[in-house]
C-alpha cells in the first residue's frame, strides 16, 4: 500500500467489503473451532464409548471446506495471499502499474471460475444424501462457491484501487 492510499479515508464500499471480510474470518474461525469440537467428540465416542457416530466425518469435511475457503477469500482482501512481488518491483513504473491491475484481475477471474464451477457441482449433487448425515452430498461446494464470489469481489476492488491513482494522474 502506498502512502497516498493509506491516507485516503475508506469509502462506504470499502467499509462494506471490510465488514464482509471480517465476517468471512469470523465464520472461518468458528468453523475451525467447530472442527475441533466435532473431532474431539468423534475421538471420545470412538475410544471411550466405543460407538462412533457416522455424521462426524461429513460435518468435519464441511467445516474444513468452510474454514479454508473463507480464509482464502479473506486473504485476498487483506492482500496476504501467495504472490511474487519481486518481479513487479524490478519492472519500470509503467509496467509495474499495469501489473498492479492485471494481477487482481487474474485473481478475480480465478475466483469467478471457482464460484461458477463450485455452484455447478453444488447443484448437481443436491438430491443425493451423504451416508451417515442428513446433508446433500455436494454441500462441501457451498463454501467454495461463496468464497469464489468473495475472491472475485475483493480482487476487483483491489484492481479498482490500483486504477484510481492512474486515473487521477491523467486528470
Structure description:
The protein has 171 residues and is mainly α. It has one domain (3-170). It contains 6 helices and no strands. It has helices spanning 3-7, 12-47, 56-77, 85-90, 93-124, 141-170. The protein is elongated, with a radius of gyration of 20 Å.
Summarize the structure.
By secondary structure, this protein is mostly helical. Helices cover 77% and strands 0% of the residues. The protein has helices at residues 3-7, 12-47, 56-77, 85-90, 93-124, 141-170.
Characteristic terms for this protein:
single chain, 171 residues, mainly alpha, 6 helices, 77% helix, elongated
Beta strands, count: 0
Low-confidence stretches at least 5 residues in length (pLDDT < 50)?
1-5
Q: What radius of gyration results from the CA coordinates?
A: 20 Å
What fraction of the residues are assigned to beta strands by DSSP?
Answer: under 5%
Give the biggest sheet: none
Query: How would you describe the shape?
Result: elongated
Share of helix, binned: over 70%
Our measurement of the CA-to-CA distance between the termini, rounded to an integer number of angstroms, reads 22 Å
Order of helices and strands: HHHHHH
For this entry, what is the oligomeric state of its chains?
Answer: single chain
Number of domains in the coordinates?
1
Q: How many DSSP H or I helices?
A: 6
Structural class: mainly alpha
What is the mean pLDDT?
A: 87
